[in-house]
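HUMAN: Please help interpret these tokens:
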Amino acid sequence: MSIPRATYRIQFREGMDFDKAAALAPYLRRLGVSHLYASPIFTAARGSTHGYDVADHNEIDPELGGRTGFDRLLAALKAEDLKLLLDIVPNHMAAAVENPWWRSVVEWGGQSPLAAHFDIDWSTKLTLPLLGRPYDVAIAGGDVRLDVHRNGGYIGLALGDMVLPIHPGSYEEVLSGFEAPAARVLAEIAGRAGPDTDENFHEEVRRCLAGGDLGPELERASKDPAFLDRVHGQQPWELIHWQEARRRLSYRRFFEITGLVGVRVEDGAVFDDVHRLTLQLVRDGAVDGLRVDHVDGLADPTGYLQRLRREIGPDRYLVVEKILEGEEVLPPEWPVDGTTGYEFIASVADLISDAGGSGALADAYREVSGERLEPDEMVRQARSEMIYRNFEGELDALARHAAAIARGADTSVPGEADFKRAIGELVVAFPVYRTYGGARGLGETDRQIVDKAAQKAAAGADGQVAAALETVVAILKGETASGGSGHAAVFRAKFQQVTGPVMAKAVEDTFFYRYNPMIALNEVGGDPLHPSGGPERFHARMAAAARRSDHSLLATATHDTKRGEDARARLYALSEAPERWSEGVARWRRHHASMIRQADGGPAPEPAVEWLIYQGLAGVWPDDADPTDAGRLRSLADRVRPYLEKSLREAKLRTKWTDVNERYEDAVKDYVDQLLSPENGEFLKNFAETLEPIIAAGRIYSLVQTLLKLTAPGVPDVYQGSEDVDLSLVDPDNRRPVDFGALERSLGRGGRQPFDRPPPGLAAAKQALIARVLSLRAERPALFERGGYEPVEVTGPRAKHLAAFAREKGGDSVLVAVPRLILEAPRAGLAFDPEWWKETFIDLPESLVGKPLRNLLTGQPWTARKVLQAGELLVRAPVILLGT
């Protein structure tokens, strides 16, 4: 198995292409990673900023440099002995006409040879939620017109600059009154066209359009709404207002994004078409590993992953994007090496943050915000909003399907409304993102999950709803009457594809923006509902990962995290100072009371949002902020405003993406502008002074987090630029261009040199720590890939302030110890006062006792006594890494 030493995530697009990535290869080698971890590289929808809206799975995006540019990147990586981990997107594609598969389906409907490639309900017309207002109003108002797409070679109905192809069978209706000779020729071409001769048809149309101009006649016809309506009625698709998508969408989408259509990779032929180029790149040795995006969206993740593993072979690294809840682990039958690492972020939060302080912050937040709902009720409410409103169409379809299955077995069954309520409550109660049942039902673990959710859902159900719930559970478990198994399997797959999006949108993208006592815990894979598990839970999770040979990525920042890794590390320190923080917020709110405006009957910002603003600012406040520097303050405000706009809209309380309250949003943004005005000097000075100890502790926690990532069981992942200080906000802030030139220069000055003196600052220390430990991983791959994990006891008056563990394999050992809860510890920069650690000892595990040790960060030899004095080891570096 080819397990990466470490990966380095690059976001292509937005200024990053293959040649720019190729130029980074020497730097990445010197940093010590083994794999460039690439965001999707296949041709994406026009204007894509991320590549997850794939338009052609079998073409490398010309916007990035195409195949020749990709080959130059491969050559550059090979020259530096680097490999490539590629992010692939099997679940969905762009629902855009530049996607040739989707264009075929729009044009030919169910006749298209590609109709089965997408997850579409063909019992009705294909609905296209592209109108900005209701259909009747849009047609009458001239929003829709007839036009030609010369490059595409077709006539279509146009919305703005988008031209949707009409079915060739409707050309005669469109062109019958036209006088241009080209019109008669086009009608003849369309009359003999068929979906299997699609390209020939379009080429003929292109040639015809090149020789004749239909523009004036199309413009004339476009002025007749009744005519346009007739043409529209002849299509295999139907234009609808975008706000109707939640009820009437005829295809499976990615979460709530109607511009991304679900792909049926569970079908063997579709799998082949989607993966043709990917598998060629793997077999040719161009790609060494794959990262599967949104595996929970697939109808059959287990079958998909088993097929993918067979295709790529046993030695290719394979990880899945999967959010694990609590102590959930991946299904054992999945032939993968691990996940993309969201759960590691939660484990680090466990170790660093103070559970008691987090609870005190929550109490203070509730007092300020006036929130009366318990957090778990807030989650239930958000889930209910999602399934009954945002995913109403999916819920209705499930209810119809369940009722049909039930009627097949018994004529005395609940109605669709009862099934809708039963399924809705079951989804609301679901404790994980999804189960993984197959054609025959659910495995034992999944049956327990469904039973637990059903028990919770049944608490408020009675009569026919309770009966419907029992039937739904039986369908999911595969316990329906004979003859319903095929339909039951379809229902099971559809149900399992709904629970994940509802969970994600309700928790990650709603609750995490509504409940903000300690925003560092509101992270993908995190659980702010429950107190920190402390070092005990961290050790338990890491030991379990080592036992099952888990090679998951260890992520501390990704393109999807809600704040930068160093912002989060800094904010963990707030759990050690809940009173200081809540007093500060009270003081700042009083100072700025006159800046509060009334918007739609309430204060803007309201107290809960004020709390969020101050904590968000605390996370991104520059280390060297100058309260008198107007330019830097303006730059900071320019970043914070979009963050707050997204936060407020995701919370969906007083504004939302689908119903923007501009007056309210403007008031909140204006509040931020006034906060960060140089004229607000008294506040800026006090805010900076209040944050000084928080920022100082945060620098050390950043190094703690980094060392944990580099030494815990799994594969360290470095998100682009995060080897520097990463105080970013949610996207797009975390996707800003990286100054790689500065990073290369700083590595050149420090590189892999030991910490022979206290590091001068976080940026230099963090990058040097990464380079230093990755060089050790290169020297000792077996230890870090397959080594065991053993918690190490710390004793003495500061025992709770230090967490330690050992990794051991075949006589090779390292000991890691990291400080925690050190807000009040005396420090000089990144160095500790050894007196504070007096009589605090690390008990060496037997595997290290009596062996000659070396401080692997400073290069200093160390005597392997049974116990080690923590203070002596923390003088030069704020974290400890000892080895044989």
